Amino acid sequence: MLHCRACFSRCIxxxxxxxxxxxxxxxxxxxxxxxxxxxxxxxxxxxxxxVAARARDRPDLPSRRRAYGDPPHxxxxxxxxxxASHLKRREYQALRRPVDREAMKKELGSGEMWLGxxxxxxxxxxxxxxxxxxQHLHDPLEVAAFVKQELAKGKTKEMQQLVRMASHSxxxxxxxxxxxxxxxxxxxxxxxxxVYNEMKKRGQFPDSYxxxxxxxxxSNNPDQSGVASKAIAVYHSLSAPNSRVKSSIIHTNAVxxxxxxxxxxxALWGFAAKIPESGxxxxxxxxxxxxxxxxxxxLLVDAPLGEGENELAHRRERGVAEGRRMWEDVVGKWRNADxxxxxxxxxxxxxLLLVGSRPRDWDDVLSLVEQTMDIPRLVPRLGTIAREAxxxxxxxxxxxxxxxxxxDDGSKRGNEFLALTEDGKKSRPLTYATPSNAxxxxxxxxxxxxxxxxxxxxxxxxxxxxxxxxxxxxxxNLHQRLRLLRTNRASSAVVQMLQEESFAKQLVVKPGTFRLxxxxxxxxxxxxxxxxxATQILQLMxxxxxxxxxxxxxxxxxxxxxxxLAKGEDLVEALTYLxxxxxxxxxxxxxxxxxxxxxxxxxxxxxxxxxxxxxAIAALRKIYAVFDRLILSNLIPEEQKAPFKAERAxxxxxxxxxxxxxxxxxxxxxxxxxxxxxxxxAEEGNVAPAQRRxxxxxxxxxxxxxxxxxxxxxxxxxxxxxxTD
Length: 725
Hints:
Layout: H1 5-15, H2 22-41, H3 48-57, H4 62-68, H5 82-95, H6 101-107, H7 124-134, H8 140-151, H9 156-166, H10 173-185, H11 189-201, H12 208-219, H13 227-238, H14 249-261, H15 265-273, H16 285-300, H17 309-335, H18 343-355, H19 359-373, H20 437-449, H21 453-464, H22 475-487, H23 491-498, H24 501-506, H25 511-523, H26 530-544, H27 550-562, H28 568-588, E1 596-597, E2 600-601, H29 610-632, H30 642-666, H31 668-677, H32 705-708
């Protein structure tokens, strides 16, 4: 009866009383019909388990659930939805997806190193080259050595690609550190921070060296924007409770250095206040050195606008007082063997004292050296009876209340730098710092300020003696010694020191050395040997330097002009030595008749800067003044003045030509000022025509077009028309 599908549907529709459940009744009726037919086909009891299993396999049949006791809706709506079945089908297909062996071989290197997918920023050729390089690098140590070697060649981009690929299979934190350090040294702070953040995103966690490199790089680039804020953020992330790395005093010193170089004293004192008194994070010698240098730098650089001398002295007084209080902590830690005293720390404190406004601060530098280096004072302390026999300290910029004679007992200082003594037999012996060139310069400057020239010579002999400290003086020591000799007007001692063979072999003298030496002779101009000493210094300069120094020549010519005891032969000798010097200056200015000087072509000389060119022209003018003094005076007979007049005329023409060139380059305003400073060409009329040098063909007449093209006076038209009356 129900063999036709249409008949079966009509029967089911007649039984369906709920129109909203049409699909469910149709499904249940079909199931009931199938179950009835199965039961009629076999009435054996052995088929009961099979029927029960079929019923449990169809949980959507409510009649079977009630029959076997299953709870309704044993699966939730998501598991029964078409979307869930579609998702399971896709999961099954993904699990059954075959592996691409060829692609795996391309992405794997030697030793089955996983390199990840190719970065879209890399070309296939770059990917293949990095893959071949990693085939020979089997551990992080080899990768780090290779990265450091290639970064020295400038291959920053290539090494970033290699480290990114290697990060998929190994921890290459050291290689990342090398890249960050290289970018920091190249002043690429923003790029270094990008690499630092990318390193963390790729699962390469920064270590202690990473933070040290980042903070040290920020301290070396204080001119970059936002350096202090970046350093503070990095240090705070390091000090966070969930940080993998524990901060140490090395990181604290690095962030203090950043704040000091960025002139952020508020942030520096904020970090310094959090340093513990003891333990692994306690302050060391480097910490105190950074803070003392920061105090000194703030006193010199970070000065408010419109500050007077009195306000400056009091501000420096507060800074030095802060340094003195800090030094008491240094000495306490040194006594307890919690700190190793170093020369850098001693010099930092000494330089801060030299910045102070009180003469007692300058005098305490020698006590500081005695306390920390066991070098006895060679001059009595300020305020003692033995010191009264020495010259009085000149302190013109010191306020009256800061001078030694006006100090009361409450304001006197210096006990912080007294020499330490052993407290009993069980006290530990102190380890003193070893002096070097920085200490020698500091001691010489202190002796210069406290007016102790004899003690300065004794300190020099003690520190440079091969049997004691064997310090080999450098250029800074030599310059400081020359300043001290200049203060004492010791021009003969300057020449003697420069002529020593030890300085000629050990030092490479610079133009500043001869400027200081020549200024000593200018200061000692009342000495009848000062001009002779200056001539010897001029000869040493011509032997040591490839080109004559214009400022040194200017000082020498100035001494020849102002020398009160000069004779005619002295000026003639000075001009004789100035002749090759003037030729050297002409070569530097790329003018003159000499094509070569000293075996060099004038075309290959270095182009002078505008400031150096002005100095060279000023030196030539001062040489011209020496000719003037010799010619306009009666120091030599009149018949001997002719060659000097001719040479003076040549010098005048050269100076006028140089000034005219400078005026053409600078414009009309500079031309008016330059014409007022030129040598008067009328003075050349005293020279015979045969003695004059022929004017070059390429030279142009001086002045504007009106004066150069003017008609003779007899042919000129009158400015005013004749009267008709």
